[in-house]
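Form P-L/3: holo structure prediction, ligand zinc ion.
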Amino acid sequence: MAFITRFAPSPTGPLHLGHAYSAIFAHDMARAADGMFLLRIEDIDRGRCRPEWESQIYDDLGWLGLTWPLPVMRQSDRLADYSKALDRLWSRGLLYRCTCTRRDIETALSAPQEGAAPQFGPDGLIYPGSCRTAPIGQRTGEVLRLNMAAALENLTDLNFLETGSRHAGRIALTRESYLEGIGDIVIARRDMGTSYHLSVVLDDAAQGITHVVRGEDLFEATAIHVLLQRLLELPTPVYHHHALIRDDQGKRLAKRDDARALAKYRADGNSPADIRAMVGL
Ligand code: GLU
Ligand code: ZN
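OUTPUT (holo model):
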């Protein structure tokens, strides 16, 4: 079976030990399977991405001894594709405009008639649906949301194969888990023209990814990705969510822990083999 995986960092800061683990892990898996390891730059958040961080990614991964085919896919080059997918979903009546601020959402969720405490999904607070039928005037933070109930209407077989040790097996996703645990998520932000979820799904398909290897912090998001794959008639890769590496105290390494930047370990005289040893590979 073909094996094509990828490492998809965002150039919003330095790569740290957690990134090194994820990248080396995916690279090793691809090599063991006689497959391919691709790199993708997830730079849709123009306000936070910097060219110097992108250069640093190439530099750090190269130093670690990883190789990948060129050209590298960059999300900022793919906005036309994202927009086409949004048109498809929009024309099927699966999206709606939402003008709610975070505050509006919190207020709606705390209204007495709502009763239950606000629920959190993979994207934070589960949207109460205020704009679904009655769009309100222009305000900041305009986004396109997925009408989850409408999206689920003609879908069956929402499942995916997970090979990571923690959840290994065929994971079956239920209608209820989507409606109650995920809700009407944001599919595109006006300032980005897309969202993390939409881009990842379209890019994985465009790169022919057969195996997604990534940290288990993204396990919950996979349900969203599988749903979008079904809606857009794209294949679902096999998923492998690996454990997150922890520091000496057993604390999970934060994504933004610059003290553990790879560049710093390099500057301190560590070798790529030292990094492998440090992350337990
Ligand atoms: N860009 C994402 C991150 O850095 C990873 C996306 C993915 O692997 O699906 O967390
Ligand atoms: Zn709204």
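COMMENT: The pocket of zinc ion (ligand 2) is lined by residues 98-100, 130-131 (CB under 6 Å).
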